[in-house]
Every structure is written in structure tokens, then in C-alpha cells.
Amino acid sequence: MALSGADRAAVRALWRKLGGNVGIYATEALERTFCSFPATKTYFPHFDLSPGSAQVKAHGQKVADALTTAVAHLDDLPGALSALGALHAHRLRVDPAHFQLLSHCLLVTLARHYPGDLAPAMHASLHKFLSHVTSALASRYG
Amino acid sequence: MSLTKAERTIILSMWGKISTQADAIGTEALERLFASFPQTKTYFPHFELRAGSAHLRAHGAKVVAALGDAVRSLDDVAGALSRLSELHAYILRVDPVNFKVGGGGGPQGPQGPQAPPALTQALPPAQLLSHCLLVTLASHFPADLTADAHAAWDKFLSLVSCVLTEKYR
């Protein structure tokens, strides 16, 4: 389903609220992904994956920056994420299913930190946005 | 797949708190499910699905009550949910993907007509009822849903999903 005007407005508004903390939440989402879905650790053999790891924190910030870029380019996600898509498809070869596991963990993380803001309608808009990001990242696989 | 002792302890200790808000949690999880995954509404043509509807509240309460049965029988979830498993497989015929969070295989579920193409190729992961339950728990019990607790709940809900779909063939 395409992102409606209401979805875009909701995602932008939430992102403004998250402000400079997106990195913290993306890091927590990564930690939760590794904890709940240990198979995802396979992509990070070179990382220290213990809780509080500086490498995971740095990676969380990268993920956050990419998501913030995506929010700024909701009209052209495939274009904005093209380079990242190529990286994940051709070099990193991440199974696209794993992006959705990260999305799940990000939504749980945000619900913990902003319980009042993640009502079903906002949750749905965010889920849609993350699905489109996932799709843009996976579009170079074929 | 079975739960470790530590995971059972987590589930049991959180269940005490959950059961005091059981109806609200079940209802909210369903509201999230229908909002994020509108295709799941197909199983409820006979329901009024607006937020706060009596049907939603009653069904949400049933869902959480069933989870409670599973929590009280962590040694034999299959036995505890046997009747429900038959109901979902033979009578309701809910596509298994609708229960799942991640992993565990299973057929891909229905996708909306305009779903981005890549999603139809991916395995059916997060974001259906188990996901919506997790997000609901995270909203209500942010301090309790540590990464370990989150992982324990993901595993428990995957186990429940497996049991509910094991009678499909």
C-alpha cells in the first residue's frame, strides 16, 4: 500500500519528536534483533555484540541516519536509498527477511519509549514506512 | 523449540501484570493488527471492527485468555491449545503467516494489491498478531520489556503460533 499523505505527515511528525535520539532507538532495536533473532548476528562476525558495545552503537547511528534520510525523501525512497540498497544486495547480501525483523524490533523499541504516541494508526503508518524502506533496500536484489 | 527456565520465569512474572489488563491488551493488539495489516480483517466479516467495538473487546479477551492457558501450561502448550489448534486449522483456516513474528518458515501470506514487489518474495516475518501483541506489551510495560524479556516473548509467541498451525496438514 502506498504511503498516504496522512502516513507521511504522521511519520514526519514522529521523527521530529524523536529528534536527536534516533540513534539510541536504532541501537536498542539492533540489540533486540540480535537477542530475539540470533541468526542475524551472522552478518556481524567482526563486531563485539555484547550489550553496550561501541560498535553496535556506531552501527545503530548509521541505521538511524539512513532512516532519517528516508524520512526526508518520502517521495522517492528507492532513489534516496539506492546506494544502500546496492550495498546490502551486492556486498553484504543480507537476507531481506531480516530487514523486517529489525523493523519489528524498532517498532517495539519506539512503543516502549513513546507509549502514548504509538496508537494503532501511528503504528500502522510507521509499519508502512518501514515496509517501503525495506522494499527499497531489497529492490536491487533481483 | 522449547522455553528455557529463564524464559519461563520471565513469561510467568510478566503474566501477573498482564492478566490485570488482559482485556485492554487483547483489544489493543487486535486494533493494531487490523490497522497495520488490513488483510487480516478478512477473517472477521461478521464483526464490527471499529476501535472500541464490543466484538473487538470480546475477541481480544478471548485471545489473551488463550495465551493465559498457554502460560499456565508452559510444559505442554500443545496440549493446552489443542482444541484451539483444531479450530484454527479445520474451521477458521487462518493462514499461518498471520500468527507469526519471525523465522519458523511457513507459507507466505496474502499481500495487498499494491505491496512493494520485494515484500512478496521475502519470508513472512514480523508484524502480524505476535508483532502487534509485542508492541502492545511494549507500550504498557516499557520497563519490563527488556531485550531478554522481548526475546522470551518472541519465542513464546512463536511456540504458540506453531501449535496453532500444526494441525493444518
UniProtKB/TrEMBL annotation, chain A:
The keyword Glycosyltransferase does not apply. One of its GO terms (cellular component) is hemoglobin complex. Pfam families: Globin. Keywords: Heme, Iron, Metal-binding, Oxygen transport, Transport. InterPro entries: Globin (IPR000971), Globin-like_sf (IPR009050), Globin/Proto (IPR012292), Hemoglobin_a-typ (IPR002338), Hemoglobin_oxygen_transport (IPR050056), Hemoglobin_pi (IPR002339). CDD domains: Hb-alpha-like. One of its GO terms (molecular function) is iron ion binding. Belongs to the globin family. Involved in oxygen transport from the lung to the various peripheral tissues. This is Hemoglobin subunit theta 1. The gene is HBQ1.
Automatic annotation (TrEMBL), chain B:
GO terms for cellular component: hemoglobin complex. Residues 2-169 form the Globin domain. Keywords: Heme, Iron, Metal-binding, Oxygen transport, Transport. It holds the Pfam family Globin. InterPro entries: Globin (IPR000971), Globin-like_sf (IPR009050), Globin/Proto (IPR012292), Hemoglobin_a-typ (IPR002338), Hemoglobin_oxygen_transport (IPR050056), Hemoglobin_pi (IPR002339). CDD domains: Hb-alpha-like. GO terms for molecular function: heme binding; iron ion binding; oxygen binding; oxygen carrier activity. Heterotetramer of two alpha chains and two beta chains. Involved in oxygen transport from the lung to the various peripheral tissues. Belongs to the globin family. This is Hemoglobin subunit zeta.
